[in-house]
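Good day; I would like, with your permission, to put a structural problem before you. A protein sequence and the structure tokens that stand for its backbone fold form the material at issue. The record follows directly beneath this note:
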Amino acid sequence: MLKNVEINIIFTGKDLSISKMENIIRYFSELGFVKVGTNEDDLVEIANLDENYLLKLGTDILIVKNKDEFAIIEANSRDGLGRINCIIRTKDPKQILLDLEKITGSETVYGQIELEETLESRHWLKYTDTKGISTEQSVGTSLTKDGIPYISFINLFGKYYISLIGKDKLLSCPAAHTQEKKSGIIVQSREDYTKRTKEDEINDKAMIKHLGDQFFWQPPNKKATKFPKIDWHINQTVLEPHNMTDKNEYKQLSKETKEVAEEAIQTAKEVFNIKLDYTEKSINLIEELIEQYFSDGKADVEKVSASFGALLGEIIRQNLGGKWGYHNFNGQKLIALLNVGTNKSTIFPINKISKRIENGKSDDLVFYYRTIKHGH
């Protein structure tokens, strides 16, 4: 009997947008899967997922199906690393994990496969603190801040972790199987992915001890103390801060951006008869406006992006926090919103509008806002 497993792969490299990754769709097509959906309504209908689950999803979702098998693929980025998350019911999830690196053309940092029900039970851990107060702790998913959260059924250690932990130590791990592949070293913790026993739990702890607990986050309290040294310069999603010593530059940028946003509100009212403001509901209206008036390939992308990007940024800033500033990206000084939301992210609203016009609904603004709001 097939069971749902979750595949996660974290890698360096290119911009993540499922819509641009035609090779992902082609890959699943070759396996006999058919594309059946790309939005949250499809998720509810096809995979019977409720709205609480949808809050965890990023901006790009692809759903494919093949008889009894199906896959929900989500692409996003965090901490300067690309991520693909895949909930899948299939006969060979291990091969799909290995293929993901080829599909994205990027370098694997770490990958895992585990039963969905096991990951869900591990995601929120109940514990009692030193004061006797019972609470819950969310398992971290940030390799650069928390470390590897636990040993999974399949663990794929890329070159950065091989350099950190050591090739011999990984291959000699007391696991069911270890194997060296082009993508890295696979450590398979147990024979059967459809169940995880108490004995497996004990063996997982032995593997962590063998590899070094300094690389793992062991909830609720102990986080990793050693992390891989990643060649950030090859990762296009990593942004180096622009050193601004003149505070007046911040103030001037903020003032000018607010003025442009006000002009966008006025233009929407006078030209398109659409009433916009700085509330969250205006995100939907901007999305509809772009779809209706600027999706024919004739729009002045630079002009529209500057105008409605400023408004989008102001809506985000006024509702989620942040401040206008600059970031260097591939040698370019770009206008950005800094320290936004719970993750204190750096985002590029003007560039986002440009991508929305050029790429269509795959760069949906509503999903974009939800992702930032809910800290993904």
About this structure: Confidence is low (pLDDT under 50) at residues 48-59, 123-129, 133-141, 232-245. The longest strand covers residues 69-78. The domain at 240-373 is CATH 1.20.120.1090 (Four Helix Bundle (Hemerythrin (Met), subunit A)).
